[in-house]
Amino acid sequence: MYSLLRNLLFKMEAEQAHYFSMNLLRAACSIGPVRKIISKCFTPSQPELIRTVFGLPFRNPVGLGAGFDKNASYLRELETLGFGFVEIGTVTPLPQAGNEKPRSFRLPADKALINRMGFNNDGVKVIRERLEEWKANTTPHPPSADKLYRKAGFVAPPDSGGELGRSLPAGRQGNRGNARMIIGGNIGKNKNTPNEEAWKDYEICFNELFDVVDYFVVNVSSPNTPGLRALQDKDALLKILGNLNQNNRSRPERKPLLLKIAPDLTPEQLKDIAEIADEINLDGIVSSNTTISRERLSSASKVQAEKIGMGGLSGKPLKEASDEVLQELVRLTKGKLPIIASGGIFKGEDAKDKLNLGATMVQVWTGFIYEGPTIVNKICKKINL
Ligand SMILES: Cc1cc2nc3c(=O)[nH]c(=O)nc-3n(C[C@H](O)[C@H](O)[C@H](O)COP(=O)(O)O)c2cc1C
Question: Which residues contact 60 (CB under 8 A, 6 or more apart)?
């Protein structure tokens, strides 16, 4: 069924197809009974899928990676499709148009995408307002969610102040989660902000979004903002993360703080990141972003990729490289740091590979485009075996 729709969508330019399909879904979800049917078909319901990570109650461990809903415009629709969590953004302080179009391309022969979006987003103020509205319209405990949490062995709903029958890490009790779907805020810097001042952009986004997201991801790994990945170097990273960490700890209740890394880091850079994570008690890592490498493409796609030019590669050809980085990170952090694995997840088996390597949860993006709206349910069924 989805393959028919996909054939139609793939006739459109990639970014256009993205908004067309999400707006179609929005129209369907605006009709209450239709939304209920979609939700029933696509939302995993096994209580064993619920897990507490960073003190937050995730309804299932399959999330949507950053960049899909950059502006927090489609949360209800994504919730209806069953995602356990959605990472909005990358959000920058000021609105940005991003790079010239076209800037997103499909490589169907390799089930991949190349993008050079360049952090197009509505800016943190508008996105904050949208999230406030989402929060106001989202009852924290829909009866169905309560039932699910109780079935899973929680003695009380997970955001009722920490009275849980399951372990919440000490000091993190009462951290309000969204019982329906957890929202991560992926933050970045504006294109025109010099790297020396980047820490201020991250702080602006952190302060603005603090009350409206459940966790934060510091994105220093996108290949499409010139110079951004240089912020993965130890000193630059310490400046940004150290500052946010201090800000976070000065508050009565802190938010989980994660870092998103590129799959193209050197072993030394990975080692530095593990050290920093330990030094500032980072809550987790998202591994990984897209790659600038074209090495693992088939020869047909290599020709296509050459014509496309610059951009981050995602999907199937990223799987192996992101698995390798994940494995190394787990080794360096001695398996103690929660890792959200991203990169080339299409099927339950791919997610299982990541979990077996030591990931705590997974995120999809390109797989969602190629596999369609059943992806969350299918992965959840497989990992729940
Ligand atoms: C079109 C597109 C835009 C993206 N934008 C962002 C972004 O703004 N911020 C970010 O951290 N990652 C972004 N990503 C990276 C994804 O979140 C994900 O980490 C990456 O695509 C690897 O996963 P995948 O192979 O499942 O697609 C983007 C990916 C794509 C395909």
Answer: 44, 49, 50, 82, 84, 376, 380
- The more confidently predicted of residues 47 and 290 is 290
Burial class (CB in 10 A: 0-12, 13-18, 19+), 40: exposed
pLDDT on residue 165: 29
Phi, psi angles (nearest 5°) of residue 121: -165, 165
All structural domains of the chain, each given as residue ranges with its CATH number in brackets, are 2-154+175-383 (3.20.20.70)
Q: List all residues whose CB is within 6 A of at least one atom of ligand 1.
A: 65-67, 70, 89-90, 104, 113, 115, 117, 119, 186, 219, 222, 260, 289-290, 314-315, 318, 342-345, 364-367
Task: For 267-317, give the secondary structure using H, E and C.
Answer: HHHHHHHHHHHHHCCCCEEEECCCECCCCCCCHHHHHHHHHHCCCEEEEHH
Q: Whose CA is nearest to atom 14 of ligand 1?
A: 67
| Cα-based distances in Å from 7 to 78, 327, 372 | 22, 36, 12
- Atom 4, ligand 1: which residue's CA is nearest? 67
Residue 340's beta-bridge partner residues? 286, 361
Q: What is the pTM of this model?
A: 0.92
- For the CA of 260, the nearest atom of ligand 1: 11
Residue with tokens 């390798």: 324
Catalytic residues: 222
At residue 128 the predicted structure's pLDDT band, cuts being 50, 70 and 90, is very high
Residue type, 303: V
